[in-house]
Specification:
The structure is a homodimer.
Chain A lengths: L1 H11 L2 E2 H10 L9 H13 L3 E6 L7 E6 L1 H12 L11 H7 L6 H36 L4 H35 L7
Antiparallel strand pairs in A: 1-3, 2-3
Helix pairs in contact in A: 1-4, 2-3, 6-7
The first copy, chain A, binds a DNA duplex through helix 3.
DNA sequence: CGCACCATGTAATGCGTTACATGATTTT
DNA sequence: AAAATCATGTAACGCATTACATGGTGCG
């Protein structure tokens, strides 16, 4: 599926693998990520499939840049995928929830320490969505007015991130209070 | 990490791979899932590592049941993992968000169809958390009063699922209205 | 008559991460 | 002096899914 993320970025502009990784980490990164190594190998595969083409720009004192451009076949594949209805919900693996589920043998304090730490992490992420991510989107529309339609959708995904983190922090607050009041002092086992 | 989910289930009771899959699909399934094939191979690996032991119960007219029991080493490994602080947020891959992010070249109607379909899926999942999952937890505590402490934590994860789906549905409602009012009628490209 | 449930496993394939390999320029 | 940025790629490994292989019982 990374395939379509790459085609998506290249449908906006021709880019190198390195540049795609940069954009990804501040945009789709919160719901779709990849390491550089996987981006490079996937781009290579996409070129073999005829979905993208690459041109090498020689550089001095640095590795040459390999700039990828989407082909018409790539655009069509992307459009078909975008139009395909999403019929199933993605399972969202969550380490904290998994630990909490099996934490009955742990002490109340260990559980609360976990939850309070998590509270900080989610609050930080919430602030990122509200400041950095928001600014990033606003600057894009100022510098590239032709992306106004894209920006409407990017802002919708940013707003999702904001609501998600606010909900997570809220749930943690409630859960911390509940555990403080109802979890037995001594371990169950 | 599936390793710890399996140790977690076996820390509550001795079970077969098949039974673990059944419990998983109605409990941790929403934040940690695995296919039977992976469960079987992982249990085998855990036995080689000395974390679990298995006994074969012969059966007639059916494959013999292989019942796994957690060892003291397994319990210790699980406890260590449960106490380890979770320092990073899991990236939650979301196909719908990825599609939406790159949907600027699609028509307004295609996008709205996607979002409305998704609205139904999340509403259904919300109902499952509110009815089936809730009943399942209540029956567990009635049939196994010694699991009262576990059930406090299971209910917390169920509540997370409920809040998550309610938030997702809410975001979809707002996004649908926003797109209806602000997305251009003709494709941007 | 077909489907779901019970019950176990292996093999092949695909997706993703970590480690390896290189190396100049710019910022702190 | 150390770390981050720019810039590309391969190799090894680990985690996850799909397909293959087997087969009886019970329900609608």
């Amino acid at each position: 599926m990374l395939k379509y993320a790459l085609l998506g970025f290249l449908s906006i502009d021709s880019l190198t693998g390195y540049e795609i990784e940069n954009f990804m980490s501040v945009s789709t990164g919160y719901f779709w990520q990849a390491k550089l190594s996987q981006i490079y190998t996937t781009l290579k595969k996409l070129e073999e499939e005829g979905m993208v083409e690459s041109l090498v720009e020689p550089q001095e004192d640095r590795p040459d840049r390999r700039v990828y451009t989407i082909t018409e076949a790539g655009r069509e594949d992307l459009r078909n995928w975008l139009g395909d209805p999403v019929l199933e919900l993605d399972v969202k693996k969550d380490t904290l929830l998994l630990k909490l589920f099996f934490s009955a043998p742990m002490s109340k304090e260990v559980i609360l320490t976990q939850l309070r730490l998590q509270r900080n992490l989610h609050q930080k992420q919430l602030n990122i969505y509200r400041t950095e991510t928001k600014e990033h989107i606003q600057q894009t529309v100022e510098n590239h007015p032709q992306l106004t339609t894209d920006v409407i959708l990017w802002e919708a995904t940013r707003r999702f991130g904001e609501m998600y983190e606010a909900m997570y922090a809220q749930w943690l607050d409630e859960t911390i209070i509940y555990i403080e009041e109802h979890f037995p002092e001594t371990a169950a086992q």
